[in-house]
Amino acid sequence: MYSSKKYFVDALSIAKASIDATNKNEGHEEYMTYLTANGLICGKVFKPEVLDFKNGKSITDELEEKFEVGSEINIFSLTNAIYDKWVDDEFKENKSYDREADHSITLEDVQIKTNSGQVINSNLLVLFADQVIGVIPGKMNF
């Protein structure tokens, strides 16, 4: 299943960061504001470290190696790696699972303005792309 929203949201984030960096609009280049049915979500796009457990190593072995070299692992990096492994295993079994249909956007320094006007602040948030109605490039302060 092709997800045009996934590609457009990714492209918009990359384009915004590139233009702001070129124009030296420092400080807000990676912030995006997402319109959802439940309100507005503003945050800085966060790319978790990629962990690869597909090479036959166990999750425990891979984590031990990362910790030995001083890598800091966050919950989203580990969750994405576990999820990717499960999806790969599922696809090998029945060939019907479409990884591209799933997409999430990990954000940091997040502000959420609910439809009732309440403002919620969070360090991190996972926003699923199917919940996005629209995107406003840049940071909005609520």
Key phrases:
142 residues; alpha+beta; SH3 type barrels; five-stranded antiparallel beta sheet; 3 helices; 35% helix; 28% strand; globular
Describe this structure in words.
By secondary structure, the protein is α+β, with helices and mostly antiparallel strands. The protein has one domain: SH3 type barrels. Helix content is about 35%, strand content about 30%. Strands 4-3-2-1-5 form a 5-stranded antiparallel sheet, covered by helices on one side. A hairpin with a 2-residue loop joins β1 (about 30-35) and β2 (about 40-45). The longest helix has 20 residues, at about 75-95. It is globular.
What's the arrangement of secondary structure elements?
Blueprint: H1 4-22, E1 31-36, E2 39-45, H2 59-68, H3 75-94, E3 104-114, E4 119-128, E5 132-137
Antiparallel strand pairs: 1-2, 1-5, 2-3, 3-4
CATH second-level architecture: Roll
- In percent, how much strand structure appears in the residues? 25-35%
Please name the CATH topology.
SH3 type barrels
Number of helices: 3
Q: Can you tell me the overall shape?
A: globular
Mean pLDDT: 76
What is the helix fraction of residues, given as a range? Answer: 25-40%
List SSEs in N-to-C order.
HEEHHEEE
Q: Compute the gyration radius: what is it?
A: 17 Å
Strand order of the largest sheet: 4-3-2-1-5
Q: How many structural units, i.e. domains?
A: 1
